[in-house]
Write a structure and sequence with these properties.
heterodimer, A: mainly alpha, 15 helices, globular, B: mainly beta, five-stranded mixed beta sheet, four-stranded antiparallel beta sheet, 35% strand
């Protein structure tokens, strides 16, 4: 059991690192983020392979406060695939409510499972998966591959970031077959949800917002801008559709 | 033969020691900032110049490296005159309350002063340092004084210049850091010195030349440069060169830009002295020193699908004697040796050096700690040394399946990997270096400790670079870290190590027992005690 907790903790720390690396000066460090993603992967593997799983967090009833999103809640799909009948967790809720940057171990694993299943169902082009996958700047999602062409066009903001940065720094873990593909997508979704959760968080906290400029670069600000600018309207959780509709360039200019 | 064997050496603890006796020589840089030190708060650099110690030797210390002279140098004040970082920034930080955490000290200093690379030139007369602010400072060893024959010349600032400026990549909306990642000297071919310095994206060739004469007596020009009216010239004279105060000028002769998509981590000059390689995370390029508008890509490990990326290049170096051979290390702990004669694109290695992982040591962080942070050929070219997070390994180029020697640098950290992962210390990239005769290797650690391993005697020593007790001629006391159990006197427990004080960059003089050790923002010079 301790392994599970430890793995949990490592997963949350790793995600925090990946997220905070987006705003650092000089651009994402490919090497460091590759190592972090490897740790993340192995920690998640340990966690997911443990026989006993901790109980699921609050049921889907908590999902609506997420915001006026039309997207078919990924938790729905996740729940179906993961544990039959178990209600899915609302990670986007928990992130802003979480307050501190690490919403806690609880958020991570459910999110992981949800995303994993979401990816599994993504073959049909899940919108949630798509948006989630797109948001992962440092980890170009495998989900994106499974996404339909139409959705790809919609996911403006989250996709533009990975596309722009994919040239440079995306360090995703390797995929070895379908199972691995799902896990990569897990992480990708994790990042996106995490990121969007943070955006909401940061939008409410001035210090969080000023984090981008403090990092010393218009560039850094620009990279983080789309996520944070989405929070400007004060939305609690930056929903995939909202992120998608925002023009990344305008948000970058706004951040300037 | 410059190794001294002393019968009076006392070896501290079980680790044993070296036969070399290391003495503190100099330290350069701002004083480490405690709030208590008034000089720091005032923002002015204390111009304390301790005069060199008179020749009489102190009572016989236990012989180790000895401090010859301590001088807080003009480096920082000179650099502050350059418009890089406002001094006020560091002042406001310094006057804030210090709140030290258990694991990592909080010290306030100008971020731009963080030393990022140290390199001796081929003769050892010059020592170059690069810092995070994009500046290069070159120290020159003064000529040996006849009266002070027992000590070697000390290093004084020779030249200071701004090598790289922060840039902005508009296409990717990313700032390009000006931090100097590596400096490599070219062998001297004429009166001027040349070095290559690189940041994340651009490599520059700098020429450092001396000017100690200036022309005087022009007919059409006044001494201050104004032109004379030709009609006022009544006589003609021949201009002559007159001596002037030595001026050292640095000028960029070549700029090698726009060849790297990822961050450059290494440069290495070929033994043909005409070409050099630059390596980033996924590619290695071959340049000619004269040609800046193109380079050849000789290694490309970028997968077609970036999602399949599993390893990156962490360091690369040319063989010291074979101009067709180079090695590059990866984040997976492997080293590949490539021969440029085999093909234009050396994606297929000629040799692959890899040690099978010890399964009993497997943990979440096994991959991170096996990532190689530095690779260095021995001067002979027969061996190469690699540094991963916990150890230094020496490989024989003729044997690929395992290293011939492995030295544990700080094995006591193996149980602390999770904490080190949290505070990011596990990503620290330590460098390593050989001594001139390839008999001793040196690398840095935490708490401002650095370690030396004697390959012949199999003894090792841990020394500390600190200003405490470092008066002139101070002999360095060996340090010991107590991993667990009862802590002996003078030992330091693992939990009290300061992980903010790390020595990542060290350099060894190519011919003598002089070492340069960079702490975060200070440069220490040690040399062996001469009798």
């Amino acid at each position: 059991m301790e392994f599970k907790l430890e793995a949990h903790r490592i997963v949350s720390i790793s995600l925090g690192k990946i997220y905070s690396a987006r705003g650092q000066r000089g651009g994402l460090k490919l090497h460091k983020n590759l190592l972090v993603s490897l740790v993340l992967r192995s920690a998640r593997q340990v966690y997911l392979s443990e026989p006993c799983c901790p109980p699921e967090p609050p049921p889907a009833g908590g999902a609506p406060p997420r915001g006026p999103t039309e997207e078919p809640p990924p938790p729905g799909a996740a729940a179906a695939a993961w544990a039959p009948g178990e209600p899915p967790p609302p990670p986007q809720d928990e992130a802003p409510r979480g307050g501190p940057r690490r919403p806690g171990a609880d958020c991570e694993s459910p999110r992981a499972r949800r995303c994993g299943c979401c990816c599994a169902a993504a073959a049909g082009g899940e919108a949630g998966c798509a948006g989630g996958g797109g948001g992962a700047a440092p980890l170009p999602p495998c989900c994106s591959r499974k996404r339909g062409a139409g959705e790809r066009g919609q996911a403006g903001s989250p996709l533009k970031k990975p596309r722009r940065e994919a040239e440079e720094e995306p360090p995703p873990p390797p995929s070895q077959g379908e199972q691995e593909d799902m896990e990569t997508g897990n992480v990708a979704n994790l990042i996106s949800i995490f990121g969007s959760g943070f955006s909401g968080l940061l939008g409410k906290e001035p210090p969080g917002r000023r984090r981008a400029p403090r990092d010393g670069g218009e560039a850094a600000a620009a990279a983080a801008a789309p996520a944070e600018a989405a929070a400007e309207p004060g939305q609690i959780c930056c929903d995939e559709p909202v992120l998608r509709t925002l023009n990344p360039w305008s948000t970058a200019i706004v951040a300037f | 033969m410059f190794l001294k064997f002393s019968l009076r050496s006392v070896f501290y603890g079980a680790g044993g020691g070296n036969d070399i006796q290391w003495c503190f020589s100099q330290v350069k840089g701002a004083v480490d900032d405690d709030v208590a030190e008034g000089a720091v708060l005032s923002g002015k650099l204390p111009e304390i110049l301790l005069v060199s110690v008179p020749p009489s030797l102190p009572p016989p210390f236990l012989p180790l490296w000895v401090l010859i002279q301590m001088k807080i140098h003009k480096r920082i004040s000179a650099l502050r005159k350059m418009k890089c970082f406002p001094c006020q920034f560091s002042n406001t930080i310094k006057s804030a309350q210090l709140n030290t955490s258990a694991l990592m000290s909080v010290s306030f200093f100008d971020q731009a002063d963080i030393i990022s690379t140290v390199e001796f030139n081929h003769s050892g007369e010059l020592l170059a340092t690069g810092d995070k602010g994009g500046r290069v400072v070159i120290f020159q060893q003064e000529q040996e004084n006849k009266t002070q024959s027992h000590s070697r010349g000390e290093y004084n600032v020779y030249s200071t210049f701004q090598s790289h400026e922060p840039e902005f990549d508009y296409l990717k909306s990313l700032e390009i850091e000006e931090k100097i990642n590596k400096i490599r000297w070219l062998p001297q071919k004429n009166a001027a010195q040349f070095l290559l310095s690189t940041n994340d994206k651009t490599i520059k060739l700098w020429k450092i030349s001396e000017r100690d004469k200036r022309p005087e007596g022009y007919n059409l020009k006044e001494e201050d440069g104004r032109y004379r009216d030709p009609t006022t010239v009544t006589t003609l004279r021949v201009p002559v060169f007159r001596p002037m105060d030595l001026m050292v000028e640095a000028s960029p002769r070549r700029i090698f830009a726009n060849a790297h998509t990822y961050h450059i981590n290494s440069i290495s000059i070929n033994s043909d002295y005409e070409t050099y390689l630059s390596a980033d995370d996924l590619r290695i390029n071959l340049w000619h020193l004269e040609i800046t508008d193109r380079s050849f890509n000789i290694v490309d490990i970028k997968p077609a699908n970036m999602e399949e990326l599993t390893e990156v290049i962490t360091a690369a170096e040319f063989h010291p004697n074979s101009c067709n051979t180079f090695v590059y290390s990866s984040s997976k702990g492997t080293i590949r040796l490539c021969d440029m004669r085999a093909s234009a694109l050396c994606d297929r290695h000629s040799k692959l050096f890899e040690e099978p992982e010890d399964p009993s040591n497997r943990s979440f962080f096994s991959e991170i700690i096996s990532s190689i942070s530095d690779v260095k050929f021995s001067h002979s070219g027969r061996y190469m040394m690699t540094r991963d997070y916990l150890s230094v390994k020496i490989w024989d180029l003729n044997m690929e399946n395992r290293p011939v020697e492995t030295y544990q640098v700080h094995e006591y950290l193996r149980s602390k990997l999770c904490s080190l992962y949290e505070n990011d210390c596990i990503f620290d990239k330590f460098e390593c270096c050989w001594n001139g005769s390839d008999s001793i290797v040196m690398t840095g650690s935490y708490n401002n400790f650095f370690r030396m391993f004697d390959r012949n005697t199999k003894r090792d020593i841990t020394l500390e670079a600190s200003r405490e007790n470092n008066k002139p001629r101070t002999v360095l006391k060996p340090r010991k870290v107590c991993a667990s159990g009862k802590r002996k006197k003078d030992e330091i427990s693992v939990d009290s190590l300061d992980f903010n004080k790390k020595i990542l960059h060290t350099a060894w003089h190519p011919k003598e027992n002089i070492i340069a050790v960079a702490t975060t923002n200070n440069l220490y010079i040690f040399q062996d005690k001469m009798n």
